[in-house]
Amino acid sequence: MKTLKEFLKYSETYLGIATALVFMLIFFCVWMTAYNGVTDRTNHLKIGLVNEDKQIGATLEENLKKNLPFDVKTYQSIHAAKQEMNQRKLDMVMEIPESFSKDLQSKGTTDVKYFINQANSSLAKQIMNGTAGNITQAINGNVYNYKQNFILSHLSGQMNAVIPSKNLSQAISNNIAQALKSLTIDSVHSSIVKTNNTDGFPATMVPLLVVLASFVGSMIMSLNLNGAAIKMRQTFDKWSIFLARQIINIGASVLLAAVTLTFMAIFNIDLKTSLLETGMFQMLVYFSFLSLTQMFVVLFGPAGMLFNILTMALQLVTSGVIVPKAMLSDFYQTIAAYFPATYVADGYYTVIFGGVRLSGDLLPLAAISGAALLVAMIRVLFQKNKSLVTNPIEQKKVQTVQ
């Protein structure tokens, strides 16, 4: 009990309890509000439709655009649609081939192709896989009705042609029998192609792993560096301290990028980008996180950790790793553009799954890092230099007091 009472005398004890409480409150508030109504916004997901068949395909295209609960955009070529999917503007591409009607009439069966982008959140991939099966079922229903109407319209002409014949009943029976045999409910088959695919479940978790591990590590590092910087103010100029912190941040970013690439090689995770490009990207990932977390602790001191915890919760929600950004509310979609995790996740989808170039994510990360450094520098500008202690004996006294 004496030990317990002694613990309760220190403010750090209550600070630790408060931090744990605030951590839980922030995550509950952010995640529950961000994910509220997500299932009602599936219509924000986008499907590209390429219709190369001008007969039945034209009717199917009209029905799909009218009835599908998604944003459906038509394309003239499969190449153009795939390009936009690689840029993560589409979640799936559906192709009705040119031979669709011809194959139905000559073979009785045909295929519809679905291209599902694997460089996407798990939820989006699951939804698109289920949607492909549902679309095929709906198409089969439409084709079944088309076949019935087609057979009936041709059957009457055939009957008129054979009425004068003595073998009328036999001819009619044969025609009807052949027509009924051709009526199969599953005339259309789905062919699903997983684009930008990679083998192994661990690889799919890399974007989430990097976002979470990098930001948590950056928070702790920034807090400790800030504590060291406060102790150094008695003996060093504020700008030399700030410059030294940035050198440490850059050095840590290079080291951690090398460690990350090493572990990815150890676990046999194939890179779809060059080693140099991936290394530069990973270095900028850590530096952007360090710059952001540093900004809050420079502005508010240790209390800045509350803002860092808040931004971590926001970034995990809005990065698009767990739930597609398109399914979030407008508020969370807007703030996603201002956080580095959004571009970190997109960049790692490119690194792991392929698709577009990394330059589209490198530039926003550099801009966010620059903005965070600028804010921190403005705050340092208004800080006062404490009296510098140059005497070694006095310096030791100051450090002893601290």
Automatic annotation (TrEMBL):
One Pfam family linked to the record:
ABC2_membrane_3
Q: Which UniProt keywords apply?
A: Membrane, Transmembrane, Transmembrane helix
Gene Ontology MF terms in the entry: ABC-type transporter activity
Q: Where in the cell is it found?
A: Membrane
Q: Where is the ABC-2 type transporter transmembrane domain?
A: 19-377
> Which GO cellular component terms are attached?
membrane
Q: Does the keyword Glycosyltransferase apply?
A: no
| InterPro entries associated with the record | ABC2_TM (IPR013525), T7SS_ABC-Transporter (IPR051328)
**UniProt name for this protein:** ABC-2 type transporter transmembrane domain-containing protein
Q: Which organism is it from?
A: Sporolactobacillus putidus
